[in-house]
Amino acid sequence: QKEVEQNSGPLSVPEGAIASLNCTYSDRGSQSFFWYRQYSGKSPELIMFIYSNGDKEDGRFTAQLNKASQYVSLLIRDSQPSDSATYLCAVLYNQGGKLIFGQGTELSVKP
Amino acid sequence: DARVTQTPRDKVTEMGQEVTMRCQPILGHNTVFWYRQTMMQGLELLAYFRNRAPLDDSGMPKDRFSAEMPDATLATLKIQPSEPRDSAVYFCASGSSYQPQHFGDGTRLSIL
Fold first, then answer.
1. Are B49 and B69 in contact (CB under 8 A)?
2. Which of A23, A77, B67, B75 would bridge with A89, disulfide CB 3.0–4.6 Å?
3. A45 contacts chain B (CB < 8 A)
4. Is B39 exposed, middle or buried (0-12, 13-18, 19+ CB in 10 A)?
5. How far is CA A87 from the centre of its chain?
6. How confident is the prediction along chain A (111 residues), in pLDDT tens digits per residue?
7. Contact residues, chain A, for B104 at CB < 8 Å
């Protein structure tokens, strides 16, 4: 059974701080990793994807991948109240495009 | 921006009724996914299609759920007969070998 694990939270950070969201996966052969943001009552929205070990930056967001440790993280710099949402980690299961999702981490950014 | 379109946005019906949900994938995407999301179970994959052919429907209760793709611009998910435990938000997503999945706005289903 291929699994993706996330802390459910809630993770609470003050405005302007760095929020760090973590995800581990069980399939060592996994190659592609995705972060989705889901606001309450809305659909998941793709915000980052990463395929290679190391860091990938996009604006205030940085995705980090460590395949040896089977660990993916998402850093949000200068957190804003508008970043308050549930963040879903997803791992590509096969070349057919099937994703395995974690349960999501709820992030709350306090003004 | 290209979007996945789902209809209806909301559906309230009585137990035992047939429910049909529709999805128009993003043009050029050849893979379509159906998910169900509840507070208890999170996001569950029900079924998915590639080039209109079903690849995996192991997440779907076979006795009452069916998924089809009559053409490249339309995917359907049917529940017959519906039960209160089917109440959830149903999402359609589309993608391809070169494009990650993008989700539609979902259908919020309530079975009374």
1. yes
2. A23
3. yes
4. exposed
5. 6
6. 678 999 888 999 999 999 999 999 998 888 899 999 999 999 999 999 999 999 999 999 999 999 999 999 999 999 999 999 999 999 988 767 788 999 999 999 999
7. 43
